[in-house]
Protein 1
Amino acid sequence: MEPKEELSGVPGMLRPFKAYLKEVGLAPGDQVTYYGCPGTCTPFIELLGFAVRDLSLEQVYVPYVDETAAKAIRPVEGVGMQVSGDAVGLDPKVIVLMGGLAMPGVPVTKEAVQAVVGAHPGAKVVGVCFMQMFEKMGWLDAFAFEMVIDATLDPVRVWR
């Protein structure tokens, strides 16, 4: 899979994601399910969810690949989108795999993620990562990604 375009900043991550969800012909109420690491992936999932809040989709967060812990992502007025405490059933039309799952030391294997994806035949698979994590860990060939968004955080500048 070769990059088709190079964008920048937060809009460069969010606009293609929203455009993709519009293009695949999802119906109102269809489910987009994000799989990612608690804490580190969650803010990015909420940001992606905020970008598509007007598409009338059901959005769900699954910590790691523990589908029994699936939670609804809901709008919070004056805040944005947040993972709620509401448990939900799963019927993903789009699966979003976050790059944190591929990081070394994360308590989930590529094979476990493949098994979860395989349990939802027909769901489209999107990847969102940073710093070429899917490429570095061999995930680009391990999943049938329809789209991958790979953002870069270099340089990170700090003033004190």
Protein 2
Amino acid sequence: MNFRRGRVRDEPEINFIPLIDVLLVILIFLMVTTSYSRFSELEVNLPAAAGKASEARPREIIVEVARDGRVKVAGAAMPAGDTGSLTSALKTAAQGKSDAVVTIDADAGATHQSVVSVMEAARNAGLSQLTFATRTPQQ
């Protein structure tokens, strides 16, 4: 006994309108919250110093930085990467010199980190006057 003889079974429908609305909201949210960063390259040509060499100052502390990161403070070798011992060596070298100038003589192939470590140690030692040694270009 089939009492539903005249009824046709309805096929289920998928309504895409709400799905499109949700995806549009998600798209707008992602566009607003995404941060765009610009990557740019700079071609840097380092200047050559052609000035007259300055006279050696009695209040000068020379810090040499080798290509492999080894550091010498006033001729005394220091362990590479040890900022604490470098700070204490700079304090010792600056005793009695109220306005000592730290001259950083870094190799051209030395890493920036080793030079920044020397600058940080000088700041920790209370030495604020820094200068970099350069070579005059060969003509």
Protein 3
Amino acid sequence: MSARTKARKRAIDLLFEAESRELNAGELAQERAERPVTPAPLNPYTITAVRGIVAHWSDINDALTTYSQGWSLARMPDVDRAILRLGAWEILYCDDVPDEVAVSEAVALATQLSTDESPRFINGLLARIVEVKPTLV
């Protein structure tokens, strides 16, 4: 597993934990960077991703809600929301990650972490975000 893939996984973990505990994900990431709870410190990309997602939270949520075709964010599994937010942020706001890589990594994370139906759903929704990207940014 590449360092960037591990950083994405840690970002998903932080987003999931923050939502579960009703905390600000950016503040949780900062806290974990300053006082790690694991032997390995947070990868800088994890912190960048979480901060980027928090900075664009409303726009990311709006895009996901608009293009999810009948699925509200609240109806999605918690881990899927975290994966989708990361994937959407990478597609819309992270210039150094090709769109195809963002989608592929999100699908791989969903395969590893979520339900059997999640990879297909996440692939379809993020592919739609890629299609409409020029109208969103």
